[in-house]
Amino acid sequence: MAVRLFEGKEQAAAYLQYRVSPKHFNLAADVGCGSGQGTILLAPYFTKVVGIDISPTQLEMALVQSHPPNVSYRQGPAEELPFASGEVDLVAAMTAAHWFDRQNFLREADRVLKPGGCLALVSYTMDMELEYGDVSNTLNDISKEVLSLSLKP
Fold this sequence. Notes:
GO terms for molecular function: S-adenosylmethionine-dependent methyltransferase activity. This protein is of the alpha/beta class.
């Protein structure tokens, strides 16, 4: 049986407000990409996808897997991304952000993201707080709002 979410007016309004519009973008960075499973999932939506991980062994595993031609991998820390300021459409961290130096990673993500770009942190749990300067409370309020609305019947 399918789960029916976002049917009430509050849920639909939050979905409209926070959902990224589907279209094709230029550059995505999958930070802490590990062996690249999430990196490959981004490929149909971006001209170029770069998986970044600090572990050479993880990247070796990513490289031996079949991947689309628009996907590449680079070694490096999450806190020092190999992109120019304002170059990236999406910075994603899929079940990896808990390993990063949060303040430095968020500062770096902010640096490389284009105006209107998206930071997507995927986790196994929502039991976390985001900290980033004077917008920390706003980030946490948005996360809690979307989570609470998605759990309503």
